Amino acid sequence: MERPMPKKIVPSERGVKLIHNPVLNKGTAFTADERKILGLRGLLPPRVTTQELQVKRVMANLRSKSDDLERYLYLTALQDRNENLFYKAVTTHLAEIMPLIYTPTVGQACQLFGHIYRRSRGLYISVEDKGAVEEVLLNWPHRNARVIVVTDGERILGLGDLGTDGMGIPIGKLSLYTACAGIHPTQCLPITIDVGTNNERLLEDPLYLGLQQNRLRGEAYKELLEEFFTAANKVFPQALIQLEDFATRNAFGLLGEYRDKTCMFNDDIQGTGSVALAGLLSALRISGQRLEDQKLVFLGAGEAGVGIADSIVDAIVDLGISPEKARSQCWFVDSQGLVCKERKDLKAHKLPYAHHHAPLATLLDTVKTIQPTALIGVSGQPKQFTEEIIKEMSKHNEHPIIFALSNPTSKSECTAEEAYRWSQGQAIFASGSPFDPVEFNGKTFYPGQGNNVYIFPGIGLGVLYSHSRRITDRMFLEAARVVSQSLTQAELERGQIYPSIENIREVSARIAAAVTKVAIEEGHSDKVLSDNLLEEIRAYMYDPQYPEYR
To answer: Which of 359, 375, 487, 523 maximizes the CB count within 10 A of its CB?
Structure first.
């Protein structure tokens, strides 16, 4: 069985070069014998320490930092010098560290990327590399890349066009692939495609590191992306490609163009859809209602909202209901009001969810008229779920489902405290960024974080393990079911709709098993289904314990 890295290895480097290699470095944990045979005597303090003691030192230093951005920078520096120790700290203290290496802190880091830049990580492909993209990819030092996360930086979280400064997103996502699903760091490749930016602040910033030109559009853009996909498939033929934070104008087109040609997916569409579906399925476990009876209103009709609706429709159709009936249960509100057939300005991706209805100007009007069971915010606009709206939701639902999913925290449609207080503690709430537990009327509520980390690492692990040639919607449907089914009764009773983050590696392993089964059933994998599938996947996962050198 393929394994990412053996536990006893002969290192490719010695001496100072070994200490400076983040993949191989053990720092003060090199044993006395290792120091002798690897030319390290005198290059390290004499006391040999354990990895566990090193983690204690890391956490003490981390907690001494004055703010989250400083903590982000400290962890980035640790990752640059000792990856095993970095991931040991992350996996041991995941709930504390994940918000620092990804949302919400990564948003601030991206906004300041050119100012806090320390060391290159990943690859940059710019317009100027057109015709030489394969050459750029061949410069990557690890030939075994299996997961590529790529962005063009146009729609970073809810922050908009950050150009090359969006590189923090692929780096952060891949850290979660490793921490949450055990994919080896050397198998992860972050890429930013720099086609310019329309962000005037960046164009005027002398410390901005990207091309200081307006964004490339049209055929020239499509040609560069075509060259990227072709070159990536040639240089890394076993890699899956995850599209991240592309603007809606490009995201749906790229997914439609390449999903049947290569092993790829769009996390903002399919991953977000799957994790929201998982939260909805869990919410229904609490309320005792049926999925096919739900009526949903979405604030925001971009790739995240449509991706969620598509996932919910897939799940309803799987129950034997027609696609037309399933879509009729999903209603959208965009910046112009209710998305309906009576409007003539609709873009193609909105049309499947445009139903016949008199135009409605506001979200409040829509909630009053449609009377949904669930309200899902993916607008990138804060404070849109007002007290009046949530009270209106509570009039018609014993347990109104309120998902304020916009990132980062500053963009959330409402806070957890607002949702629980305005609904008198009846809401089932989830957000995109984390909120602390809320005390209300003598009860503690544990808000769910609809974080895609519950989905994409497990999808990736399953694709790698099974060598699936494609990533399909069925895989995301099964992943959502696994996440919801992974909740214990005790977690449901606490109001949780996502499993405790400390169990994420086991959730990812179970998703990987489900993905493997789908890949085999759909003919995308030649693997033979094992009777010990879950155990084999657990054994396949990278463990950040130090290897022994000999």
So the answer is: 375
Q: In sequence order, what are the beta bridge partners of 296?
A: 330, 374
Number of neighbouring beta carbons within 10 Å of residue 366 = 24
Q: Domain of 423: which CATH number?
A: 3.40.50.720
Q: What are the residue ranges in the chain where pLDDT is below 70? A: 1-7
Do 213 and 246 reside in the same domain of the chain?
yes
Residue at 275 is within a domain: yes
Helix axes 83-92, 68-81, angle to 10 degrees: 130
- Show the CA angle centred on residue 125, arms to residues 273 and 87, nearest 5°: 60
The whole-number pLDDT of residue 357 equals: 96
pLDDT of the residue at 5: 52
Cα dihedral 171→177→178→180 (10° resolution): 130
Q: 408 preceded by cis ω (within 30°)? A: yes
Determine whether 444 is exposed, middle or buried from the number of CB atoms within 10 Å of its CB (0-12, 13-18, 19+). exposed
Are the C-beta atoms of residues 544 and 78 closer than 8 Å to each other? no
Q: Based on the fold, state whether residues 258 and 142 are members of the same structural domain.
A: yes
Is 498 one of the catalytic residues? no
For 445, the token pair is 């509520």
Name the token pair of 402: 């309120």
Tokens of residue 283, six digits: 């919410």
Structure tokens belonging to residue 167: 């590189």
Would you say the C-alpha torsion 300, 304, 309, 312 has a positive or negative sign?
negative
Range of the domain at 160: 109-262
**Is 482 a domain residue?**
yes
Q: Per the domain annotation, does 330 fall within a domain?
A: yes
Residues 379 and 483 both lie in one domain? no
Whether 423 and 393 have beta carbons less than 8 Å apart is answered as yes
User: Per residue in 491-523, pLDDT tens?
Assistant: 998 889 999 999 999 999 999 999 999 999 999
**What's the one-letter identity of residue 481?**
R
Q: Is the dihedral of CA 245, 251, 252, 258 positive or negative?
A: negative
Catalytic residue check, 173: yes
Q: For residue 550, with 0-12 CB atoms within 10 Å meaning exposed, 13-18 middle and 19 or more buried, which class applies? A: exposed
Selection from 177, 181, 90, 94 nearest residue 509 by Cα: 181
**How far apart, in whole angstroms, are the C-alpha atoms of residue 10 and residue 12?**
7
341 SS3 class: coil
Asked if residues 447 and 438 have their Cβ atoms less than 8 Å apart, the reply is yes
Backbone torsions φ then ψ of 189, nearest 5 degrees: -130, 110
Shared-domain flag, residues 329 and 440: yes
Query: How many domains is the chain partitioned into structurally?
Result: 3
The amino acid at residue 176 is L
Q: Which of 26, 72, 88, 173 is catalytic?
A: 173
Q: Could you say which of 26, 72, 87, 102 is catalytic?
A: 102
Q: d(Cα 440, Cα 418) in Å, to the nearest integer?
A: 10
The percent helix, strand, coil of the chain (3-state, each to 5) is 50, 10, 40
Q: pTM of the entire structure?
A: 0.94
Same domain, 427 and 493: no
State the CATH number of the domain containing residue 215. Answer: 3.40.50.10380
C-beta of residue 504 within 8 angstroms of C-beta of residue 175 = no
- pLDDT tens-digit readout, 446-478: 999 999 999 999 999 999 999 999 999 999 999
142 vs 186: CA distance, rounded Å: 6
